[in-house]
Amino acid sequence: MKLSSRSLLHALLLALAPLAVQAQTLRIGLAEDPDVLDPSLARSFVGRVVFTALCDKLFDIDEKLVIQPQLATAWEWSAEGKALTLKLRSGVTFHDGEKFDAAAVKFNIERHKTLPGSNRRGELAPVAGVDVIDAATVRLNLSAPFSPLLAQLADRAGMMVSPKAARAEGDKFGAHPVCSGPFRFVERTAQDRIVLERFPGYWNKAAVNFDKVIYTPIPDATVRLANLKSGQLDFIERVASSDMEKLQADKKLKTSRITEIGYQGITINIGKSEQAKKNPLGRDGRVREAFELSLDRQGLAQVVMDNEATVGNQWVAPTNAYYAKNVPVPKRDIARATALLKEAGEPHPSFTLVAPTTSDAQRLALVVQAMAREAGFDVKIQAAEFATSLNMADKGEFEAYALAWSGRADPDGNLYSFHGCKQPLNYAGYCDAETDRLLDQSRTLRDPAERKKAFEQIAARVLKERPVIYLYHRNWLWAYDARLSGVRNVPDGLLRVTGLKMAP
Amino acid sequence: MFEYLVRRLATLLPTLVFVSILVFGLQQLLPGDPAKILAGEEQDPAVVAYLRGKLHLDEPLPLRYAYWVVGVLRGDLGESIRTQQPVRELIVQKLPVTVELALLAFVIALAIGIPAGIASAVGQGTVWDYGANAIALWGLSTPNFWLGILMILLFSVQLGWLPASGYVSPFEDLGANLRAMVMPAFVLGNAIAAVLMRHTRSAMLHVLSSDYVRTARAKGLAERSVVLKHALRNALTPIITLGALELGTLLSGAVLTEQVFTIPGFGKLIVDAVFNRDYSVVQGVVLITASAYMALNLLADLAYFLVNPRLRR
Questions:
Q1: Which pLDDT belongs to residue A451?
Q2: Listed ranges A358-372, B251-265, B270-284; the one with the highest mean pLDDT
Q3: Which of residues 403-442 of A touch B (CB under 8 A)?
Q4: Are residues A267 and A413 both part of a single domain?
Q5: Domain count, chain A
Q6: What confidence tens digit (pLDDT) does each residue in A159-174 have?
Q7: B237: Cβ–Cβ under 8 A, 6 or more apart, which residues?
Q8: Fewer CB atoms near the end CB (10 Å): N or C, chain A?
Q9: By residue range, what is the domain housing residue A292?
Q10: Using the beta-carbon criterion (under 8 Å), do B259 and A220 form an inter-chain contact?
Q11: A212 forms bridges with which residues in the sheet?
């Protein structure tokens, strides 16, 4: 029997086939099961991880948090900042073959604003209406200037779904989402997997190197890592900080560490409820200052996070362009803390720190307790499951609460809702007319230098009052197969699947 | 026996109603507002208000219970607020997974527990007895999740023999299904094997010391026949009761095992639903679990008839 070189090649290819098939599926381990896959209704962080593959947005952000074009290729603000004109990418289709155009953008913005239960309504509140100029141009009219809008459109509020599918499915759209991202929805088994396949009509298909993406939720960090090590996953998010050192020695795996855009802090009840008046921390600013001075942030980061965190004292990390340099991170000063407590007439204040039951939050509470004791504080720890703790915070049934925030690309998303009077995330009950004025003013400014100045003024006021004591910014820790290239470390902690490639 | 069956079935219905009221009521005692949890990080007041309306949270409790019961009677268990999937669909997806896991675990438990119990009773005071007791003690005192993680580290990460976690449907690939299930089934079955072994041992010791066994031995029957045919059958009655109860334990034990091995079954479903205050999912799952538990106990009672002829009269 004679074998031609061609049939030999065939045989070889056949033998390699299973390997090739394997390499074309990207398997990603998530820390939680995402919620509904409808950009208007979605609420969870992990849902956003899946959306990066499924739904393109008008804009994206890059590693430096700079706005980048995605479905919108160019933008222009009107002189007074009350209209934003967008040029749209041409030749884009949704997964069902429908065309993406200005009418689709109008439909989507209106859907975000009107769908019952939409979580985007607040994010797009200043958008009063949308005008279709021509098929590739659209104008968003605002009721007042709103500089964080571009950042909002670079997240779920800027995600575009197929109008036809959305109309047909109504509020059941999330069960079979139809968008225009690099991958389209195939199936979902709750708590097991979300399967997406390559969308052949994608506008940037040269950047797509996988046929399938499978997201698997595995809540336990040890098990998630075991799956990566045993080769059942190619990429995992949120590696336990205690595993990082060992992982870096593993030649088969690579790791990424990215400073988050969120933060870990301690919220203090200073005016949320009557309890604020009974709270030694809430009653007297000097006690809060003493509490802050009793904490060694570097020590906290080291013990609680195995040094996988950047210490900070504001809603953005010191590395952020909008960090207010006029209020630097204070150093631990026990002598000053004790003196302040004496001055306040409370040498041994006692309060309860509510901490969610996650291991990070519990460790944090223990270390804070030990550190504050040296200044004379008696900190009691109350562990509460997350839903319970949120309820306590909302009702003001707490004195201090260890709360983390996942963060938004624009500082406004870490600030406005937390420190504006009566805002939904203002658990501290902080309310100051001048801060409110500054917050509103910061939203009208587009020039980065002017915005920075406004944030500095806000920082000077808010951080003196300490409704929240900001402690550190955690690192997003990722681990993945060393053959995987093109991983982009974007600080929002969401893995971009375009540009990823698996070497054989 | 027919009359007995009817009587038993008649008591099932009120029990189910009671369970459903209990589940519905207890859930309201959970701290935290489900609308707030479901509203996600942003806590937009408009969204919270919308969800409260959708979940009927502002209406009186009995009325909400009535809404739910009417739905259940129509075969509609509601919808998961978190993922928009119908609860019935979730249950149909996940029940077979947990049933398979529980059955495999139970088979493993029986295969280890009963022979070990017999061996240790027959060889009381010998090395077999001490050996089996030591193993039982180990099985009882080893936490599920810890054993699970150790097994994953050994068999998946170090040796690479078995998948670390996940689930494949047996209809898709039976081999892959069994490979994925063997570790969780062992972890789950292991603790129950220990309980079964202890009970088999004590029941067998009791029976082996009774008069009829002595008579059987005196008339020259082979020891094998005395133990397996005469003694075991009498010892089985309490073991069957225990088995049925332990099947219930299996369902709850599956909660932890499913978390560790990321098996998308009932246990994981209910844990996630409780933490997310996804009420309709919790209610649906508990209702089905309670029904299954009652059905199992009924089956156990019927099994007594099979092993114990005296009850048939």
A1: 94
A2: A358-372
A3: 405-406, 417, 424-425
A4: yes
A5: 3
A6: 999 999 999 998 789 9
A7: B304, B307, B308
A8: N
A9: 263-475
A10: yes
A11: A25, A197
In tens, the pLDDT along B102-137 reads: 889 989 988 888 888 888 888 888 888 888 888 888
pLDDT at B10: 85
Nearest residue in B to A37, CA atom: B83
The model carries a pTM of: 0.85
DSSP letter assigned to residue B309: G
* Residues B260/B214, Cβ–Cβ less than 8 Å: no
Q: Do A226 and B90 touch (CB under 8 A)?
A: no
Task: Give, in degrees to the nearest 5, the angle at Cα B42 between A275 and A365.
Answer: 50
Q: Show which of A98, A132, A164 is a domain's final residue.
A: A164
Decide which of A127, A144, A164 is a domain's last residue: A164
Contact A387 B37 (CB under 8 A): yes
State the burial class of residue A64 (Cβ atoms within 10 Å of its Cβ: 0-12, 13-18, 19+).
Answer: exposed
Which residues numbered 97-116 in A keep a CB inside 8 Å of some CB on B?
Answer: 116
Regarding whether A355 and A267 lie in a shared domain, the answer is: yes
Q: Which residues contact A256 (CB under 8 A, 6 or more apart)?
A: A476, A477, A478, A479, A480, A487, A489
CATH no. for residue A229?
A: 3.40.190.10
Q: Do B80 and A116 touch (CB under 8 A)?
A: no
Same domain? For A470 and A432 the reply is: yes
The reply to whether A18 touches chain B by the CB within 8 Å rule is: no
Tokens standing for residue B103:
């059955």
Q: What is the band of B253 on the pLDDT scale with cuts at 50, 70, 90?
A: confident
Q: Are residues A354 and A421 in the same domain?
A: yes
Contact state of A190 with B44 under an 8 Å Cβ cutoff = no
